[in-house]
Amino acid sequence: MKKFLIAFLGTLAGIWFSIFIAFVGITIIIAAAAASSISRNGVKEIKDDSYLVLSLAGRIGDRPRVVKPIEMLQGGEASQIGLNQITGAVRAAAEDDRIKGIVIECAGSSAGLAQRQAIVEALKEFKGTAPEKWIYAYSDAYTQGDYYIASVADSLYLNPIGMVDIHGLSATNMYFKNFLDKMGVEMQVVKVGTYKSAVEPFLLDHISGPAREQQELYLGNMWGYVADDIARSRGVTATDVNAWADSLIFTSAADVLVRKKVVDRLVYRHEFDERLMELTGVSDKDNLRSVSIDTYCSANDIARKGSGKGAKIGVLYACGDITDEEGDGIVAANLVPQILDLADDDDLDGLVMYVNSGGGSAFASEQIWEALSQWKEITGKPLYVSMSDYAASGGYYISCGADRIYAQPTTLTGSIGIFGMIPNAGGLLSDKIGINTSTVSTNPRAVPISVFSPMTPDQRAAMQAYVEQGYDLFTRRCAEGRNMSQDSIKAIAEGRVWDGAEALRIGLVDELGGLDAAIAGMAKKLNVESWTIAEYPVVEPKWYDVIIEAGADLKASAVREELGEMSSIYETLARVKGMAPVQARMDFFELSF
User: Which of 226, 234, 253, 188 is nearest to 463 (CA)?
Assistant: First the structure.
């Protein structure tokens, strides 16, 4: 009895100690989040002879991220810079007499290609608006993505023993068929669209001809645009840029990089700081007045153009996987009410939906499309779409009804197609584990489609008809939205993915440009030169959101820690597990830039 009491009390103490540690951790998280919020909302003074610092390090999101609990507990940052902050700050700084120039600090950022293109456009606009101001870039090692942005600079500085990586574009697909065969799992697929290759990783062990065809086209077009852009900025030819990419240039000596005009000067960091001192007229490094993007946004209303009184333009963010009722991306159960609520906002003069999604649930996509149609019918106001890295399949579905669609040349869009995917794990149960099933039913079709047995011919035929019905609806929505015949849409559909420039050529988008171009186009439509941006959904995290996110982050962190590079396989299979049966989704692949 004594040993039992000691064990019981020890267990009880352990539980209370765990609760105490969790409470302290959560308190720290909430306090840090509050401090971060105060820091963001607090107005800071920007002094004369300052320069804006664009730090390319870590993940660049579509919008600022308020808090990431697991990263905070591990000593990371409490916030993530948003693309809207970067482009807004750069454009505002062009007309700010206190800002003398911009320094691009390249330390290895993570961002989509269209996101990077938006930053490049903002920097070019800065140079055009304020030609007397300067842009300098510095790095110990330029990644290709960072180099693309830095190439806009007046001068690129590199550490004398630094490196530059330029290699072109590639897309890597994972194929799971052999793995599934070994596990005794058959993936049963019904689809419409020759190019609808999102299902191929579960049916094949290598890329198909149509999938290779579409990837070669859009990768070639996207890289061609980037290479031309870099060439113009660096005063070389696209042939030169491709020669850099083909020569494993990251192994080249730094002086060779200068000779080939990849960079302009080789300097150590202190020498670069001395150059900044000259440019800003200070005699001591400690007196340099650098201003981060976050600080600049805290001190300036970057959501306002001019007086801001001409119009109120809403920007609705739709980013991530499209799901029905739960998830951390585009959740129809949340987004649909948000859209209908915006229809009641009489102060809103127009709406721009920012889309960065490869699609997801076909059912959810239709609900969002219908809500946007209701918004247009109720308000009679213009609805524009701005496509970022992806607006494909379901991402295009929710976009196609807009009055005007903007895409970057490097946007991946289209993928107009539908598929259904249901696993048959009967072989896993019977052959691998030794579990068998028997079913008794009252009617011939009383047995539902199950993961424990293959579909019957009747079930497969019914599923195929259901998917074709969904495809017909999808193409009809696109035809109505684009003022094209349904046959014309079907001719460019078939699940095929297009880059933004090709999408413009075939009529899937109206104009090339990013979110700022879409907003400017909306302002022109409204006949105003001054406007204020209102972003939705409004980011107002609750304390319990922090706790829920902490749990999810801990799980994800543990998986990545244990599986390392193999974690992407787990994450892909986990996504498939949680998918709705019928999907409007583009390929699963990793774009290397």
Answer: 188
Q: Which residues pair with 110 in a beta bridge?
A: 59
The predicted-structure confidence for 23-54, as pLDDT tens digits, reads as follows 444 444 444 444 444 444 444 689 999 999 99
Q: Mutual orientation of helices 362-379 and 457-482 as an angle, nearest 10°?
A: 30
Distance CA 579, CA 593 (A): 28
With 80 as the cut, is the pLDDT of residue 261 above it? yes
The H-assigned helical ranges of 138-283 are 144-150, 177-183, 209-234, 238-246, 254-259, 269-280
Contact 413, 503 (CB under 8 A): yes
Query: 3-class SS at 177?
Result: helix
Distance between CA 513 and CA 156 in Å, rounded?
26
Give the number of other Cβ atoms within 10 Å of residue 124's Cβ: 16
**Rounded distance, CA 302 to CA 91, Å?**
8
Contacts of 463 (CB under 8 A, 6+ apart): 190, 420, 422, 449, 455
Tell me the two tokens of residue 275.
């150059």
For the chain, the residue count is 593
Banded pLDDT at 110 (limits 50, 70, 90): very high
- Percent of the residues in the chain that have a pLDDT greater than 70, as a whole number: 83
Burial of 404 (0-12, 13-18, 19+ CB in 10 A): middle
Structure-token pair, residue 202: 């579960």
Q: Give catalytic residue positions.
A: 196, 393
What is the distance between the alpha carbons of residues 290 and 300, in angstroms, rounded to a whole number? 15
DSSP element (H, E) containing 418: strand 418-424
Provide the 3-class DSSP secondary structure of residue 570. Answer: helix
| Residue spans of alpha helices (H) in 81-200 | 83-94, 113-129, 144-150, 177-183
Q: What angle do CA 341, 347, 352 make, to 5 degrees?
A: 70
Q: List pLDDT tens digits, range 66-103.
A: 555 554 554 445 457 899 999 999 999 999 999 999 99
Rounded CA gap, 569 and 565, in Å?
9
Q: Phi/psi class of residue 376: alpha, beta or left (left: φ > 0; alpha: ψ in -120 to 50)?
A: alpha
Instruction: Give the orientation angle of helix 209-234 with respect to helix 113-129, to 10 degrees.
Output: 20
C-alpha of 57 from chain center: 16
What b/e sequence results for 359-395 when a residue is b if at least 16 CB atoms lie within 10 Å of its CB, and e otherwise?
bbbbbbbbbbbbbbbebbeebebbbbbbbbbbbbbbb
**DSSP reduced 3-state for 186:** strand
Cα–Cα distance, 576 to 265 (Å, whole number):
49
